[in-house]
Every structure is written in structure tokens, then in C-alpha cells.
Amino acid sequence: MELIPVLPHFQAALNLTSAILLYAGLRAIRRRDRAAHQKWMAAALLVSAVFLVSYLFYHAAVGNVKFAGTGWIRPVYFTILIAHIALAAISLPLILLTLRRAPWQTPGTSCPPHRRIAARTFPVWITVNLSGLVVYLLAFHLFP
């Protein structure tokens, strides 16, 4: 079995997994369980890093993938895709800044700086994951 054709499906699974892990991390911190929150978020970061490597490898090998849909779905698809790309571009710096401001990075500090940036990072990160899934479904399953 060749690796390249399987990568979009693998990447979709990684996106879904990351979204689930992010949600679990959010639930943990809302329960004030910092240890669980840290583990869920570290797992989400790891899964997202694997996704990024896989994505870069795939597009280095394949280039751009043409969207085959026609009619009304084209502007819908490209609107979602453009929003996804724009949010993905800002998500990495936001994620790294959020991680840098985590309280375990500077022991003895409180959480407000981390919490403030995380409140902006979480919706961007999870939207990137979910919009990536929509792009995948449209391009590879509904309009291949």
C-alpha cells in the first residue's frame, strides 16, 4: 500500500483527534483539574504536530489538490478553505504563545496571562481542526 493516497484520511483522523483532545482539555480546566488539562493539551499539541508534518509531506509530494465540485458548492468550499488557511496561519503562533504563558513554564506565577491568550487560542485552534474536516469531507468524499 502506498503512503501518499492514505495521508488525507490520516490527516482527517488527526484533526478529529486533536479537536476531541482540545475539548477534553477545556473540560478538565473547567473542573479545575490542571494535571489532566496539561495532559490533554500536550496530547492535542503532539497530534497537531504530527498533522503538520504529515500535511507538509503530503503537499510537498502532491502539490495543490484541485476541487472537483461545480456550481454553488465552489464558492462555499473556497470560503471555508480560505478561512481555514487564514486561521491555520495564525494558530501556530497563538498556540506557542499560549504554551509559553502556561504557569508551569514560570513556577510561582498565576494563570491570568495564560488564560487570556488561551481564551483566544482555543476557538481558533478548534475551528482550524473542524474546518479542516469540512474541507476534507468536501474535497475527498462529497466532491472528489
Report on the structure:
The protein is mainly α and 144 residues long. It has one domain. It contains four helices and no strands. The longest helix has 31 residues, at 112-142. It starts with 6 loop residues before the first helix and ends with a helix. The mean pLDDT is 94.
Q: Which structural class do the helices and strands define?
A: mainly alpha
Gross morphology is elongated
Order of helices and strands: HHHH
Number of helices: 4
Number of individual domains: 1
Largest sheet entry? none
**Into which percentage range does the β-strand content fall?**
under 5%
Q: Which percent bin holds the helix content?
A: over 70%
The gyration radius over C-alpha positions equals: 17 Å
Total DSSP E strands: 0
List the uncertain runs: none
